[in-house]
Write a structure and sequence with these properties.
With 144 residues, this protein is an all-alpha fold. It has one domain. Helix content is 77%, strand content 0%. The chain is built from seven helices and no strands. Helix 1 runs parallel beside helix 6 and helix 4 runs antiparallel to helix 6. The longest helix has 21 residues.
Amino acid sequence: MPPPLLFLLLLLLSAVFALRYGGRDGRGLTAMLVLASIATMTTDRLDRGWDVLRPWLFSIDTALLVGIVALALRSRRFWTIWAAGFQLPCVMAHVAMALMPMGAALYYAMESVWSLPMLLVMLFGVLEDHRAGVVDTPRRERLA
C-alpha cells in the first residue's frame, strides 16, 4: 500500500475512533490533523518539487506543531506529548532543508515518516483513555 494511501486510511480510522471514543484531547488532535491534511492536499500544487524547501508545507507543519504543543500543555494525557514529539522532527526536516539542501527522497522521507507514528500514538492513547474510563467533563459540570 503506498504511504499516502496508508496515511489517509490510518487518519480515517483514527478520526472515527477518536470522535467515537476520545475525549477533548483526542477530538482536538483529530481536528488539527484533518485540517492540516486538507490544507496540505490543497496547497500541494503551490509548492515546487521535493528538491527545494516547500514553504507552504513548512507553514502547515509548523502551525500543526504549535497546535499540538498547545494541546499537550493543557492536557493531562501523556500521549499528547508523544504526538508533539513526532511532529517536531517533521518541522525540523524543513529547517534542515532550508539550511542545507538535500536530495528530494531524503527530504520527503524525513518530512513524512513521522505522521504514521503520530496517528498510532493518538489511536493507542485514545484507546487507553477509553479503557481506563477517562472521561473529559466540561469545566462547568466539574464546578457544579
